[in-house]
Amino acid sequence: MTDLELFEQEIDECSLVEGALALNALIFPETDKQWVKHTLNTMFEELEHALVHETDEKQKFESFLRFFYHDWNFSGDSEQFFDSCNARVELVLKRRKGIPVSLGALLVYFGERLGFPIVGVSFPSQFIVKVNWPHETPLYINPFNGEYVSKSILRAWLIGYEGPLAKIKPQDLAACDNPSVLGRWLAVIKGALLREDNFAQALMCTDIALSFVPDDPYEIRDRGFIYQQLDCQQLAMEDFQFFIDSCPEDPSSEMLKIQVNALSGHQVTIH
């Protein structure tokens, strides 16, 4: 069984953090999966010990949040938000910095192990965490800083993301499944790697994405741009042509036609 097949099998059988770790290891082979798993277990034991005398569940949850953000000092990386380090579980654990999806995945991981009614939510503008106390209105947490956010704040985020007419829909606040979150996580990693000019590993991201949706024209278009940066001009031209044929009405198709014409006389480089 290939690494990719193992990854596809794992994401349906594990927590979001474990699925992200498997994803990270595909893109970054140097990822120390055993260290991460050992560290998560050690941290959980530390957390259990710290909360052992808490008897009220809600108070215990507040203590959990304080421990995560103050004792462990996890925080959002506001200075280098788009750095690929923030999407790699191993480095988030080492640096204690991340982005909403990586910090949120850790928060849900530990919260679930402690038995709290906590789930991840793939809100359109960013990953958030929902707490469902029985017979109460759900609470929402911004994992970037551990603060509770009201529905009015969430709507303000949505307006900033989608425009002034945006309204929160029930599915926007529904618990998310691992594959959909990992798809967004993968896109975040790819975007970060492209900004860092790390085209070889960005190409791995497109290969993973296309293993799930083989004929996604937008992913194939992006792969074409990566091939172009890697000086694989023939492969780039083929991907651009696929996109043009699949999405003739897309505004970028006209630009890509110019690219294809320019590339058609370019000598192919084989790596």
TrEMBL record:
InterPro entries: SirB1_N, TPR-like_helical_dom_sf. Residues 35-186 form the Protein SirB1 N-terminal domain. Coiled coil: none annotated. It comes from the Bacteria. It holds the Pfam family TPR_9. PANTHER family: F-BOX ONLY PROTEIN 21, SI:DKEY-261L7.2. Belongs to the UPF0162 family. This is Protein SirB1 N-terminal domain-containing protein. The lineage of its organism: Bacteria, Pseudomonadati, Pseudomonadota, Gammaproteobacteria, Vibrionales.
